[in-house]
TrEMBL record:
InterPro entries: Cupin_2, RmlC-like_jellyroll, RmlC_Cupin_sf. This is Cupin domain-containing protein. The lineage of its organism: Bacteria, Pseudomonadati, Pseudomonadota, Alphaproteobacteria, Rhodobacterales. Residues 68-132 form the Cupin type-2 domain.
Length: 322
């Protein structure tokens, strides 16, 4: 693989292209300043103009959300796994039908494997622009977003209508539902009963891992964060590992399946037979199966990285309350 071919498989943080109208709450006050990024795979964006950096999916999708202080993403659910880690800032995650069932504050580097089937939302409660990185299960990320009914209702007051085809239409721009396409129906009260309302005490022990705990656990070997034997035990169609400075030797290795590298802190030297490059915080690198390569911090100081590896587990409902 030539350096140019490898570079085509790396999405640099500085090259990320945002979409500001990716979802139905894009005009709703409090949510109207957020930016969404689709890095690997089509994700779950509802906007036709969402830029996709790498379309080939490794069995899961990678995305990101960037938000200024005070900006929130509205209550929604997914049919497959949704995992976030905080790249920058301080974030409040909250969940439940009305967002009042539970909550916690995530700091930089913390990771949250959200239980499938609950309504969840998040907001930047820090003082600067924040960024969270997302891993979504399945090649099609579960087919889309399930919104809490009030989110769809509120959005209509600000001109956005979601079609049952999963696409957004902005009536303020003269857009209307195409012939034969009905609005996305609201969930009924009976359907809403199927969405759990777990408490904070039920969620945090089995679904949240803190950055500094992972740094300690990864001192001599990679720390399995999400997996059948992970700190957070789950099988969502991928595994997540956490690496720090002393986790792996600077010798070649390879996997027989897709691997995605997502640096959190420090600069990481990626080397393969015909080249080398440096991965920086916020970059995303898609390593193809069977490629011999090595990975090591390129400078002194704090270094950490999340590694996502495809598995043969089906990307169905996961992240169950354990």
């Amino acid at each position: 693989m030539t350096p140019d071919q490898m570079e085509a498989r790396i999405v640099r943080y500085g090259d990320l292209r945002p979409c500001k109208t990716a979802f139905i709450d894009a005009h709703t006050p409090g949510s109207d300043r957020k930016e969404n990024f689709t890095i690997i795979g089509g994700g779950v964006s509802e906007a036709a103009d969402q830029h996709v950096h790498i379309r080939e999916t490794p069995g899961f999708n990678i995305g990101a959300a960037g938000q200024p202080p005070g900006c929130r993403n509205s209550l929604h659910s997914h049919r497959t796994a949704e995992v976030f880690f905080v790249l920058k800032g301080r974030w409040r995650f909250f969940w439940g039908r009305w967002g009042t069932a539970g909550e916690f504050i995530a700091e930089e580097g913390d990771i949250f494997n959200i239980p499938t089937g609950i309504f969840r939302a998040f907001e930047n409660v820090g003082t600067d622009y924040g960024m969270i990185m997302a891993i979504l299960g399945g090649d099609d990320a579960g087919g889309g977003v399930i919104w809490a009914p009030q989110v769809i209702t509120d959005a209509k007051d600000y001109g956005l209508v979601l079609g049952e085809n999963g696409r957004l239409y902005d009536t303020k721009k003269g857009q209307h539902l195409p012939d034969g396409v009905k609005p996305m129906p609201l969930l009924t009260e009976e359907e809403l009963k199927a969405f759990p309302e777990p408490t904070t005490a039920e969620v945090i022990p089995n679904h949240v891992a803190r950055y500094w705990d992972l740094m300690a656990l990864s001192d001599r070997q990679p720390c399995k964060v999400i997996g059948a034997t992970g700190v957070l035990r789950d099988r969502p169609g991928f595994e997540v590992e956490f690496l720090s400075r002393n986790s792996i030797p600077d010798t070649p290795y390879k996997f027989d399946r897709h691997e995605v590298l997502m640096p959190m802190r420090g600069h990481w030297r990626l080397t393969w037979a015909s080249g080398r490059t440096v991965l920086n915080p916020g970059d995303t690198a898609a390593i193809p199966p069977g490629l011999d390569h090595s990975l090591a911090p390129s400078m002194t100081g704090e270094s950490s990285l999340y590694r996502v590896i495809a598995t043969d587990d089906p990307a169905g409902p996961t992240g169950r309350l354990l």
